[in-house]
Amino acid sequence: MRNTAKLTTAVLAAGALTLGLTACGSGKDSASSDTSGPLVVAASPTPHAEILNFVKDKLAKKAGLDLEVKEFTDYITPNTATEDGSVGANYFQNQPYLDDFNAKRGTHIVPVVTVHLEPLGLYSHKVKKADALKSGATVAVPNDAVNEARALKLLAANGLITLKDGAGNEATPRDITKNPRDLKFKEVEAAQTPRSLDDVDAAVVNGNYAISAGLKPAKDALVLESPKNNPYGNFLAVKKGDENDPRVKKLAKLLTSPEVKKFIEDKYQGSVIPSF
């Protein structure tokens, strides 16, 4: 859900200037009172922007929604741009990540509607099965708090490690109580985990980055997150106070429509799973 965003700093600054008059005067509970013009949504390229562009091309006009999609390849700028009013909404993250982000950065982003799950997976260029990892193998994991914990829980769920009781959404390798293979962990930016596969024995990769790298989670992952009772569904989010923006409501309805569900199922073949 940290490379350089396709939307440059200059563009962000310009957006902040144009939207800042209403955003700065509205207080922390509302990003903007102006609901005219297009709804600009920040999104990760895959699958979020692809889903949004399907809505834009196939559904938005009939619903009376003017939708603009801005792609980012990092997990930080979409939230900061939503907070400062440079964009009106974002679509790229899950609840544990957002909770951690808001707490650490003082932002006021809130979820609107959950759309899909991207199962986290363990991948390797060197072994075909997780239990083939040798003693001392190095595993790359995302270095942000939530996704690292999620990665460790995936490994624990598949018997590769054991985490101490109560290890939650901020678990780190220090919370490992049993490590029978003496696995070593290399913390890298989430976006870089697919590129690390040539340098490590295995890597835990977020679904969107796996797909962008040409991996097929449903086929290529050694182990894959279960969608059952999974708290990591990705949602449309806005700055607090903008939940009732009519454009946001229209988009939320379209993102959870039968047409979008079919698009996700047909295009991603189990690598992205509708959550509605």
From TrEMBL:
Lineage of source species: Bacteria, Bacillati, Actinomycetota, Actinomycetes, Kitasatosporales
Chief location category: membrane
Organism (species): Streptomyces rameus
Record carries keyword Chaperone: no
PROSITE patterns, A to Z: PROKAR_LIPOPROTEIN
Record flagged with keyword Glycoprotein: no
Localization per Swiss-Prot or TrEMBL: Membrane
InterPro entries: Lipoprotein_NlpA
Signal sequence bounds: 1-23
Similarity field: Belongs to the nlpA lipoprotein family.
Membrane topology (UniProt): Lipid-anchor
Name recorded for this polypeptide: Lipoprotein
Pfam families reported in the protein's UniProt record: Lipoprotein_9 (PF03180)
Keywords: Lipoprotein, Membrane, Palmitate, Signal
